[in-house]
């Protein structure tokens, strides 16, 4: 079982969503990005950090430093549930394989259905396969 699969149900049990997980090349730094309805506070990060420190000791997860934070205003979207939740929002995305000679797009996330993401770019609708998405992030509203 990989670390993401180990953490997801653990954090869900605490009332948090695991948004992303990063591990440094040496594997000694772990960054865990969490979210919950209404947003994440510093106290939430402290609570999760304390819980994960004990959890990792029990599960023999090797690391030197743990960072827990919110995903930020430019939150990454990875799961189908993320695309459904943020329908109507502006996103910036990068494709693995170019579409019409282009890999980077900025547009409005319209819907996800049957493995296809519908993205509105300059009034045109693009159908993008979820398997071709390399990176998707919300565009912050400032």
Automatic annotation (TrEMBL):
Cross-referenced SUPFAM superfamilies: YhbC-like, C-terminal domain, YhbC-like, N-terminal domain
Domain Ribosome maturation factor RimP N-terminal residue range list: 6-74
Species whose genome carries this gene: Nitrosospira multiformis
Ribosome maturation factor RimP C-terminal domain location: 77-141
BP GO annotations: ribosomal small subunit assembly; translation
InterPro entries attached to this UniProt entry: Ribosome_maturation_RimP, RimP_C, RimP_C_sf, RimP_N, RimP_N_sf
Principal location listed in the UniProt entry: cytoplasm
One GO term describing the cellular component: cytosol
Family membership noted in the UniProt record: Belongs to the RimP family.
The keyword Cytoplasm is annotated on this UniProt entry: yes
Name used for this protein in its record: Ribosome maturation factor RimP
Gene name in the database record: rimP
Organism ancestry: Bacteria, Pseudomonadati, Pseudomonadota, Betaproteobacteria, Nitrosomonadales
Subcellular location: Cytoplasm
Job description of the protein: Required for maturation of 30S ribosomal subunits.
Residues spanning the signal sequence: none
CDD domains associated with the record: YlxS_C
Pfam families listed in its UniProt record: DUF150_C, RimP_N
Family annotation (HAMAP family): RimP
Assigned keywords, A-Z: Cytoplasm, Ribosome biogenesis
